[in-house]
Design goal:
Blueprint (H helix, E strand, L loop, with lengths): L7 E7 L20 H17 L7 E5 L3 H14 L2 E4 L16 H7 L1 H12 L15 H19 L5 E6 L1 H12 L19 E6 L5 E7 L3
Parallel strand pairs: 1-4, 2-3, 2-4
Antiparallel strand pairs: 1-5, 5-6
Length: 220
């Protein structure tokens, strides 16, 4: 279960645009933010400062150990006057044999893997995540992300009213799944989450099951 002793607002933030996102590479790539990405991060910071209790300096921005997420969190934290903290367990899922490869190379070198990933993404919750040789298992990934989320909630108790978690799509997908299913991994219902770069969704954490309070939105 995902619980908080005191009410806590949790914002799930997909990192903003980086040069890597212009090349469709599975992991790695150029992690620097584009000019558009920097503007997106500033808008998120303003959004959290205005709507998420960050203006009271009671928020914390948590990020995974990955360049795009780190830089996004740095800008958000500066704009929203929030503390910034690294959570190592929030790193994205290990991609195995396709790590660092552009989509076209995956298609050419591992067509079966590419087809499996396409089918999973196109049929949300209708099929199990495809097996990618050398990649991290879903069970291991879920255990790691769940542990990081619970640790972040525990650390926030009494210190913060709001948490913003800045991550890549694989971690965001798992976080969303665990929140929807109150901490459980439901393999058959595990659906790919691909919100726009720089988007935000919000959940309320309490003594009861998590409740989504803001659907995915892109701050203007």
């Amino acid at each position: 279960m995902i619980r908080s002793k005191k009410p806590l607002q949790l914002y799930l933030v997909r990192h903003v645009e980086a040069y890597k996102n212009l090349s469709d590479i599975h992991g790695g790539g150029d992690q620097r933010l584009t000019p558009s990405g920097i503007k997106q991060a500033v808008r998120i910071g303003n959004f959290l400062r205005q709507h998420g209790n960050f203006e009271l300096n009671t928020g914390v921005v948590i990020h995974q150990p990955e360049g795009r997420s780190t830089e996004t969190a740095r800008i958000i934290g500066k704009v929203a006057a929030a503390r910034i903290r690294l959570e190592p367990t929030f790193k994205g899922v290990t991609m195995g044999i396709i790590a660092g490869l552009p989509e076209k190379e995956v298609e050419a070198l591992y067509p079966d893997v590419a087809a499996g990933i396409r089918a999973w993404r196109a049929n949300p919750g209708a099929m199990a995540h495809p097996v990618v040789p050398g990649s991290e298992s879903n069970t291991s990934f879920a255990d790691r992300i769940r542990a990081g989320l619970k640790r972040s909630i525990t650390r926030a108790q009494g210190l913060h009213q709001s948490i913003a978690v800045v991550v890549t799509s694989s971690t965001l997908t798992m976080l969303n799944h665990l929140l929807v299913n109150d901490g459980k991994l439901r393999e058959g219902a595990y659906a790919f989450t691909d919100p726009p770069l720089g988007s935000v969704a919000a959940w309320c954490l309490s003594a009861d099951a998590p409740v989504q309070t803001l659907p995915t939105t892109v701050p203007k």
